[in-house]
């Protein structure tokens, strides 16, 4: 079996894994927003509400949910007969939708309702609401900080901690805005598919949507690098493989 045929044979499985990863990514972004909302708006309860065990449980449940929710994705496409492609002058296997993917009942239930609600309505609503509250809290904190500067001089440590919290909140809001900007077109494509508007314009939209999804995945690291000194320290530590005692002390101080 040629390498091209092997690649196409695993494509249905890679498609399912890709959709699982997308689901995890969406709800991890929501989880981070919930974490930041509690940390900013309910700082004195964050330790009680967000212990390490609860966060770990959330991640495990999210992975399990993503697997179950996207199980049918593995049966949506299959490798059909080898076809001759005139544009590249080459024989290639062709990926085609299965009967399940073409079923009107499946499309109405999964794409029309389940996928739209789970992947767009719920996460987008939560992200907009939570980050609006966080942004409002950050603005109030900034105003209070400006007022406090007019009075007694604040402790340097308190000012540094407040500045760090504010910067972290702004960083996560930037990540969420990037996420919403790059995934809104996917929502539009989903609506167009549900309405059977799958002409040439839709095909072009899907191509552009795939590009935006890759941009979103690629740019998060830039946002972290821009706003987070801790992230830059950890990145330097791992990139340069600084496993010395000094490097271990650096990573311990960054994580702590």
TrEMBL record:
A Pfam entry, by short name: 7tm_1
The UniProt transmembrane annotation reads 12-34, 55-75, 110-138, 169-188, 208-227
Where in the numbering of this chain does the G-protein coupled receptors family 1 profile domain appear?
1-224
The subcellular localization recorded is:
Membrane
Name one molecular function that GO assigns to this entry: G protein-coupled receptor activity
Kindly state which keywords UniProt assigns to this record, in alphabetical order. Membrane, Transmembrane, Transmembrane helix
> What's the protein name?
G-protein coupled receptors family 1 profile domain-containing protein
Please tell me the species this chain comes from.
Answer: Ancylostoma ceylanicum
